[in-house]
């Protein structure tokens, strides 16, 4: 994660009613990870129940072949290249920020994670009590 930032508030009880981590992920890292995971999810859905709504949607949206591999179109499987080259994926995962990394501007995707935390003395998993 690039340019990570943590912000939070706390109250008198030691609770953190609001916390947030912000930063960016280089677009190349994003595109090397997310389409692969999405294709795997679609493949699993198609293999477990080819007529399910998820499998049908995956095939409709992404089973369109790849540049250089038109034979992948309509084969009932979702390849990583089909996911990565899909216009839907390209628009949804398009880089949305430019960040400076070692003095060079690069394309990245913003990420933010919001959380709440409460103060708690200790929590032991079974078998790890003092």
Write structural notes for this entry.
- The structure is a single chain.
- With 130 residues, the protein is an alpha+beta fold.
- It has one domain (2-117).
- Helix content is 34%, strand content 29%.
- It contains four helices and four strands, in the order ββααααββ.
- Strands 1-2-4-3 form a four-stranded antiparallel β-sheet.
- A hairpin with a 6-residue loop joins β1 and β2 (16-26).
- The protein is flat and about 60 Å long.
- It starts with a strand and ends in a 13-residue tail after the last strand.
- The mean pLDDT is 86.
User: Distance N terminus to C terminus?
Assistant: 36 Å
Unreliable stretches covering 5 or more consecutive residues = none
Average pLDDT score: 86
Strand order of the largest sheet: 1-2-4-3
Radius of gyration: 21 Å
- Overall structural class, as computed from helix and strand content, comes to alpha+beta
Helix content: 25-40%
**Major β-sheet, in short?**
4 strands, antiparallel
How many structural units, i.e. domains? 1
Give the tally of β-strands.
Answer: 4
Multimeric organization: single chain
The percent range for strand residues is: 25-35%
User: What is the general shape?
Assistant: flat
Secondary structure tally, helices: 4
What's the order of the H and E elements? EEHHHHEE
List keywords for this structure.
single chain; 130 residues; alpha+beta; four-stranded antiparallel sheet; flat
Secondary structure elements and pairings:
Layout: E1 2-9, E2 16-26, H1 27-48, H2 53-62, H3 80-85, H4 87-92, E3 97-101, E4 104-117
Antiparallel strand pairs: 1-2, 2-4, 3-4
